[in-house]
Write a structure and sequence with these properties.
mainly beta; Methylamine Dehydrogenase, Chain H; 338 residues; WD_repeat_MORG1; 31 strands; WD40/YVTN_repeat-like_dom_sf; five-stranded mixed β-sheet; cytoplasm
Length: 338
């Protein structure tokens, strides 16, 4: 049950994919569109909120995207959009980084040389001139035809599951299945390394760059002080019988992230932590998975938004500062709330 202050009205369901959705991101401000990557090997561009959705009393459903981008031969695992909305990058099981022209619908660059599937990609640099990808953290210059990365950060001993570039501080945060969160200060040539002991599935920097949000496969989301690695707050945790709300009501769902890559993010001006989750391991009640939101300061759960009994995991979420958010689901749907 959502709180009154958190936007949780189901406005739009995208039914354009026919396999689990692994990546969802809004276009750059004002976030009119949403890009989604799926195990069906395609990236889809769709309108995030149809014009009539907020006036309609019913959830709008869309079955055809505005544009399909089909070059991947394997699952698409992450998508990043440039600030000018003219380009996006995608990665997945192909072991390549794909750079796309949004309007033309074609790839303009492909970078290879990775030894395993790639799970994370982000833009960085002036004018989004650099694309960052894993499996080790590679930085690619979009302005040249060079097939070699301009820099490789090789500290991770397992796949890098998540990346976030914080340009005001010239830093790159990475999370790896080796249980480490690493922050690279590109300007100073300095690396900080925090050991969380459990595989890291998601990292995100706060807007001011002072905090790092990290999801791990022990069903916790930790907020760390970037300067010294100290724990500022923790959200989620081992499944409890019921999840309490500030108003005293209780949800039948419990937050879980124990087996799959589930991502989290900051929302509402860094006042809230938003995350997908896995359904209970046996899910005898048939509840399915839900999206959870916690208040940063109090740690209280402010919303639990069920995605339906057929949804076994919500692996990715995205927040738009205009007050919308989206969750990518294992049943191939993307659900937009506001």
């Amino acid at each position: 049950m959502p709180s009154k202050s958190f936007p949780a009205r189901h406005l739009h369901t995208l039914k354009t994919h026919n396999a689990p959705v692994n990546a969802v991101t809004f276009s750059s401000y004002p976030g009119t569109y949403v890009l989604t990557g799926s195990s069906d090997r395609a990236v889809h561009l769709s309108r995030a909120v149809p014009n009539n959705a907020q006036k309609s009393q019913q959830t709008i459903e869309t079955t055809s995207p505005i544009q399909k981008y089909e070059a991947h031969g394997y699952s698409v695992l992450d998508v990043a959009v440039a600030a000018d909305n003219a380009r996006f990058a995608s990665v997945g099981g192909d072991r390549q980084v794909f750079l796309w022209d949004v309007e033309e619908g074609i790839t303009t660059r492909r970078w290879g040389g990775h030894t395993s599937r790639i799970e994370a990609v982000r833009f960085a640099g002036e004018g989004d001139s650099v694309v960052i990808s894993d499996t080790t953290v590679n930085l690619w210059d979009t302005r040249t035809r060079d097939q070699k990365p301009i820099q490789s950060l090789t500290e991770a001993t397992d796949t890098v599951s998540s990346l976030h570039a914080h340009m005001p501080s010239y830093s790159i945060a990475s999370g790896s299945y080796d249980g480490h969160v690493r922050v690279y200060d590109v300007r100073m040539g300095k690396t900080t390394d925090d050991v969380l002991a459990y595989p890291v599935t998601s990292v995100r920097c706060s807007a001011d760059g002072n905090a790092i949000l990290a999801s791990t496969l022990d069903s916790y989301i930790r907020m760390l002080d970037r300067s010294n690695g100290s724990l500022l707050a923790a959200f989620g945790g081992p499944a409890k019988e019921k999840t309490p709300f500030v108003d005293g009501t209780r949800s039948r769902h419990s937050y879980r992230n124990a087996e799959l890559r589930v991502r989290s993010t900051f929302a509402q001006g860094d006042a809230v932590v938003l995350s997908g989750s896995e359904a209970a391991k046996n899910d005898e009640e048939g509840l399915g998975a839900a999206v959870f939101a916690w208040d940063i300061l109090s740690g209280e759960t402010v919303a639990v938004v069920p995605m339906g009994e057929k949804v076994k995991v919500v692996s990715c979420v995205a927040w738009n500062e205009k007050g919308f958010w989206a969750g990518g689901c294992s049943d191939g749907t993307v659900r937009v709330f506001g």
